[in-house]
Amino acid sequence: MPQSTYAPDLTAGSAPSSMRPTLAGLNHMVSAGHYLATQAGIDILQQGGNAIDAGVAAGIALGVVQSDIVNFGGVAPILVYEAQTQKVWSISGLGYWPQAASLDAFMKDHGGTIPAGVLRTVIPAAPDAWITALERFGTMSFAQVAAGAIQLARDGFVMYPLMAEVLAENAANYARWPSSAAVYLPGRKPPPAGAIFRQADLANTLQIMADAERSQLGNGRAAGLAAARRTFYEGDIAAAIVKYHEEAGGWVTAQDLRDFSVEVEPALAIDFHGTRVHSCGFWCQGPSLLQMLNILESADVRARGHNSAAYIHLLTETIKLAFADREVHYGDPRHVAVPQDELLSKAYARERLAMILRDRAGADMPPAGALPRHRDISMTAATDADTARTDPRLDTSYVAVVDKAGNAFSATPSDGSYNTPVIPGTGICASGRGSQSWADPDHPFRVAPGRRPRLTPNPSLAIRPGEYVMPFGTPGGDVQCQAMLQTFLNIELFGMDLQQAIEAPRFATFSFPSSFEPHNAMPGRLMIEDLVDRAVGEQLAAMGHAVQWWQGRNWRAGAMCAVKHDTQSGVRWGGADPRRPAYACGW
């Protein structure tokens, strides 16, 4: 049993040491879920691109070097801060169900579950999200920003231990589909760490889009980007997706792909003691982070002491309250009347705070607020053997960028490749994010044509006027907002620098229905990283929390990345989780 503890007295302003320093740069900074993606972003900045160009380059590269957990045909929610206008924009980056999608089919043929494979496919959104970001806010061509990813896919990269581990753990899943096995089980086995891993079909897919753009040379940048988009959604790539779905019993049609486009809209925001924190809309879980901060704003959080039992208890109960609302009141705003203003109001947050008992865990799943569209909820309890839901390694990555002009980019691309098949000849998977819908006619995120799932990936961006701009985010499914909350508070309330804030041990509750199929729950479950003092866990258990420990330093409750632009000094700071292949780099 490890004896190492982590209990700094941060009420006095002290801060913990970190495994590596926060990086600093004068002109720009990139932090991403893999160092090769970080380098792809830096290369674009060095070539004169802005934060959006670099963020798209890094995001596409993540779909190569982390194609086990990020897919070019997946999802890519994005936040963009324009320094000139001082506005923050959201790009949805999430597909919706095909027109042929049938809730009845899941209920009658699959017992109310959404099985792995083509039936959980929603329209791939990431390609349109990346191109839309370039078109609206960038300066470069698709070919320029995709060049790094194309090279990494064509020439290969050295397989690293974490991806090798994920591929090995999911070898049986990849073997279900010959097209997936051909990519991820070369020689009928997963590639070991140290092997060169190439993805020729993926390189070709990206190259075809770049070539289509170049065919419009002389017609302007917008025409070129439109040509790249058409190639994916109307050309040979689309045809390959449709053909496979026709053969495999899927629902995606040529019209579904042709009609799709992402949404660009002002980001949601709340004020936390003078800092504006931004999120994408209620089609994702991002607003729950805003609700958590609203609830905590009027509580004396810092006085409880960092990672003390009182502190962890308060945050855990706050998270449970926000996720109770997430389960009942969130929905695709195009189809559900979300009580947005009420959910993000300070008055409502104070009502929720008043429900928290100071020394006793509340209900495993507290009731949602009595707002419009309230409904009762039920939970299916998970067994102790259901460990995957407490392992936040299994999906998603992240990229943050700031440039010399002060523009900022925050994106959380995702979609793993082991629960949905690779489309033959393309190297991509068509988004399997339908796993975050419900085969339940009463649920606001039920399966229906044109409806979007409730997306867990959710980038964030914090701005303190006159002081800093900070894009931040993490992988980790339902742990994402929990990790982002703790990291933000480490910086905002406890004065930690980025690297200290990211490395500080974290915790996560699982006392709510999972966002992932089959949407089970672990009532009362509170997971704590084992660097926290064991006595703290004992106190929390005495309060009624079902405490368990994440063992070993390779376990992380989310793998944070963050970039911070100090608007007073002009310095750009970057931090990333050292227990992952994530890295920050700046100039």
Write the layout of secondary structure elements.
Layout: E1 23-25, E2 29-32, H1 35-46, H2 51-65, E3 78-82, E4 87-91, H3 103-109, H4 126-137, H5 142-155, E5 157-158, H6 161-169, H7 171-174, H8 178-184, E6 196-197, H9 200-214, H10 221-233, H11 236-248, H12 254-259, E7 264-266, E8 268-272, E9 275-279, H13 286-297, H14 309-329, H15 340-343, H16 346-353, E10 380-381, E11 399-402, E12 408-411, E13 460-464, E14 468-473, H17 480-492, H18 498-503, E15 507-509, E16 520-521, E17 525-529, H19 534-543, E18 546-550, E19 561-566, E20 572-576, E21 583-586
Parallel strand pairs: 10-16, 17-18
Antiparallel strand pairs: 1-20, 2-11, 2-21, 3-4, 3-12, 4-7, 5-6, 8-9, 9-13, 11-12, 13-14, 14-19, 15-17, 19-20
Arithmetic mean pLDDT? 92
Unreliable residue stretches:
1-7, 373-393
Secondary structure tally, helices: 19
* Lateral arrangement of strands in the main beta sheet: 1-20-19-14-13-9-8
Q: How would you characterize this protein structure?
A:
- The two termini are 42 Å apart.
- The chain contains 19 helices and 21 strands.
- The strands form five sheets. Strands 1-20-19-14-13-9-8 form a seven-stranded antiparallel sheet. The protein has a seven-stranded antiparallel sheet with strand order 7-4-3-12-11-2-21.
- The chain is globular and about 65 Å long.
- Helix 1 packs antiparallel against helix 5.
- With 587 residues, the chain is of the alpha+beta class.
From the structure above, extract its key features:
disordered N terminus; 19 helices; alpha+beta; 587 residues; globular; 14% strand; seven-stranded antiparallel β-sheet
